[in-house]
Amino acid sequence: MGHIKKLKCLVCGSEYNENEVMYTCPKCGxxxxxxxxxxxxxxxxxxxKEYLQNNKMYNLWRYLPILPINDPSKIGPxxxxxxxxxxxxxxxxxxxxxxxxxxxDGRNPTASLKDRASAIVTAKARELGLNEITCASTGxxxxxxxxxxASTGLKSYIFVPKTAPVAKLTQLLVFGATxxxxxxxxxxxxxxxxxxxKEFGWYNRNTGFNxxxxxxxxxxxLEIAEQLNFDVPDYVFVSVGxxxxxxxxxxxxxxxxxxxxxxxxxxxxxxQAEGCAPVVDAxxxxxxxxxxxxxxxADSISVGIPRSGIMAVKYIKExxxxxxxxxxxxxxxxxxxxxxxxxxFGEPAASTSFAGYLKALKEGLVKKDDKVVVIITGNxxxxxxxxxxxxKEPIYIDPTIEDVKKKLNxxx
Length: 412
Description:
The structure is a single chain. The chain is an alpha/beta fold. It is 39% helix and 14% strand. It has helices spanning 40-44, 49-53, 89-95, 115-127, 140-152, 166-174, 186-200, 212-217, 219-227, 244-258, 278-284, 309-318, 328-342, 348-362, 384-388, 401-411, and strands at 4-9, 15-16, 34-38, 85-86, 100-104, 132-136, 155-161, 178-182, 203-204, 235-239, 267-273, 324-326, 372-376. A 6-stranded mixed β-sheet has the order 4-5-13-10-11-12, sandwiched between helices. Strands 8-7-6-9 form a 4-stranded parallel β-sheet, with helices on both faces. It has a 3-stranded antiparallel β-sheet with strand order 2-1-3, with no helix packed on it. The chain is globular and about 75 Å long.
């Protein structure tokens, strides 16, 4: 059984039982994001380091005692989570740093961190006896939901901007989702999905709306802590769009702190593109989220109205975090450098976090001996067209060894 103590509104502080409210605070409307609070004393009796040592389930469900699922039989079959944490020795040597790690969450079933949230939400829908789920997405959340529903026999209805990368649209269609390509922005698709939820009674997965998406995404932090033997990093760099992933990262470490697994919180560093940085501007400024018109190659974080922005800013500030903005050119450069030096292929949004780390290191915002984890949230195959902008074209040759020698001489 789950150990949820209450759901608490981030805006007005109202508290609810978990079965009392499905999405946001009734008093505050869509602005009233709900935080999930747990009974840590009850969890401590079951969830210990010994529990983890004896647990051979190497996916996000190894953390079931601190997840909001009451009926384990509703868990889906996809292998989500426990993605690799690489020490990236070649990058360390090249940059002269000693404690850098890359968390490659592009290794999840549909190639993004969003699988973590979809696994939780799909299980929750099955607990509630709901068979149809909807969401709005720039692509990754949608494909993760479509994959999760396909594996469990549920139906998914997806709203995406028609500009979403072809690879992400293809995933949706292959997984059997009903896809609505909206002639508009992500923010317009989001509003439309909320209206559809009310009109048709579909369960809604949207970040910044469904309180359990944060609970799924927090498992990336639980894994990072466990993979580092609970020696918490000094900094965690996270690409930010809606603000939901970085909120989850905070929540994971917060849970472990309250359970006595760790002794401190890491400093969270949100990274956004210069053409769409409402969360970074709020963190570095007066804390107020101001909508912007997105203009960036990083489609997965191209969010002008960050739905979890209030939560993200609050959590980042509690860790004394600071924000970094990077250009599209820096993002493309980071894709190439990360791939060439580590073998990790990140899509533009995912590589934004690494671009932010490189910039912070250059500007002296982090030291070379700081323990740093950079989360890569999605695989580069999600957006090949953008990735190709970061590299040179192949060398075209005739099928002869002589032509190989000729071209080699030209490039040496």
